[in-house]
């Protein structure tokens, strides 16, 4: 299967979003899918209207070439992180997310998790034309979910994060890949269906 772009949408050092994304990426590898990490801490991205950077081009290329995308964000002040929005702004217009399956995950220190940020992020991604997967995962009380070394210790949270990977891969296998194979067959010269399309 093609690569999946995994976006950690925060620039904060030693953040929990990246820890959660690594759990998702581990499960992608178990599923024989190659994850490509885009770490907000390492991206030099311009604000809209400023000159494009090499990182902005690389970001667009990776997302454009990916079979699907996973976006992770912390919840800051009742919304998703500014870095997450900057990443989306640098995906171009039309967006590299257009027509792309996108799964969402959020982390928050509070008891209700990242529900508000994920609602808003879902809306923004849908506006770009992304196919936003149902069942976004919110990890609440994130400081208690990982130990001091960054290892996940809460089994329910681990299973939820693994579910992000599995649901996206299942969607790609069951819906996207068969459609691509069918379209390829129809386009083949001399295929009996080609005359009717």
Write a structural description:
The chain has 197 residues and is an alpha/beta fold. It has a single domain, classed as Flavodoxin domain (Rossmann fold, 3-Layer(aba) Sandwich), CATH 3.40.50.360. It has helices at 16-30, 54-65, 82-89, 115-127, 155-187; strands spanning 4-8, 35-39, 68-76, 79-80, 101-107, 131-132, 137-139. Strands 1, 2, 3, 4, 5, 6 and 7 form a seven-stranded mixed β-sheet that branches. The protein is globular, with a radius of gyration of 18 Å. The two termini are 27 Å apart.
- How many domain modules? 1
Query: What is the CA-CA span between the terminal residues?
Result: 27 Å
Number of helices: 5
CATH homology superfamily name: Flavodoxin domain
Low-confidence stretches: 180-186
Total beta strands: 7
Q: Could you give a short account of the major beta sheet?
A: 7 strands, mixed
Query: What's the helical proportion of residues?
Result: 40-55%
> What's the CATH architecture name?
3-Layer(aba) Sandwich
Mean pLDDT equals 90
Secondary-structure element pattern, one letter each: EHEHEEHEHEEH
């Amino acid at each position: 299967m093609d690569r999946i772009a995994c976006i950690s949408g925060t620039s904060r050092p030693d953040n929990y979003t990246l820890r959660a994304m690594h759990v998702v990426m581990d499960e992608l590898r178990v599923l024989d899918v190659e994850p490509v990490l885009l770490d907000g801490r390492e991206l030099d991205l311009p604000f809209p209207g400023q000159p494009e950077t090499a990182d902005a081009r690389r970001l667009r290329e990776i997302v454009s070439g990916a079979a699907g995308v996973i976006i992770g964000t912390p919840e800051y002040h009742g919304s998703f992180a500014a870095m997450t929005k900057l990443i989306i702004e640098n995906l171009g217009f039309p967006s590299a997310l257009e027509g792309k399956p996108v799964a969402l995950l959020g982390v928050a220190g509070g008891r209700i998790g990242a529900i508000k940020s994920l609602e808003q992020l879902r809306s923004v991604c849908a506006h770009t034309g992304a196919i936003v997967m149902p069942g976004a995962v919110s990890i609440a009380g994130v400081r208690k979910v990982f130990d001091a070394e960054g290892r996940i210790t809460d089994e329910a949270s681990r299973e939820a994060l693994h579910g992000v990977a599995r649901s996206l891969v299942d969607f790609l296998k069951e819906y996207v890949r068969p459609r691509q194979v069918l379209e390829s067959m129809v386009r083949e010269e001399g295929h009996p269906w080609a005359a009717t399309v």
